[in-house]
Amino acid sequence: MSTATARKPRLYDQLCALPEGLRGEIINGQLRTQPRPAWPHALASSRLGSDIEGPYGRGRGGPGGWWIIDEPEIHFLLDTEVEVPDIAGWRRERMPEPPQGHKILVVPDWICEVLSPSTKSTNREEKMPLYARFGVQYAWLLDPAIRTLEAYMLSGGKWGAASTRCVFEEYSLTFCEG
Description:
By secondary structure, the chain is of the alpha+beta class. It is 22% helix and 39% strand. The longest helix has 19 residues, at 39-57.
C-alpha cells in the first residue's frame, strides 16, 4: 500500500466524525444517520422519560432501582453494533454503577423507540430483531402521531405483547388496554 493510498476510516470512526446535528448508529454493519428528532418526536420522548424516571429511576411512587437515560450509545458489539435508542433502562442489580464514558457495554433491560415517519421501519424491522438477539427483555414503541405505545416482552427469543396499546394524551401516559 503506497502512502498516497488513504485507508478508509473504520465505521465507528465515521460515526464519531458525523457533523453536529446529525445522529448516527451502526445497525447490522451499516452506518445509519438521521437529523436530530423533530419536535413531536422529542417532546414524546422527553415526556415519557420524565413519566418513568420518578417511579423507576428514583422510586417515587414506584419500585425504583433502575437507571433511565435518554439516547444512550449502546455497544452491543464494541464499535461494531452501536444503537442509540430514544430511552433505555437498566436494573441497578445488573449495572450497579453507571459507566464513566459514553460507550455503554451492558445490554439494557428495557428500551423505548419513538417512531417517526423516517425511523418507523428501521425501528420495527431492524432494531427490534437486533434487541431481541442481544437479549433486551422489554421494548416499547411509542408513536406520537397516533399517540399510542406498544409494549413488548422477550420470551424464548421472540417478542410477545406485554400490553396491547397504551394511549398518550398531551404526550403523557393515561391508560393501557390488555
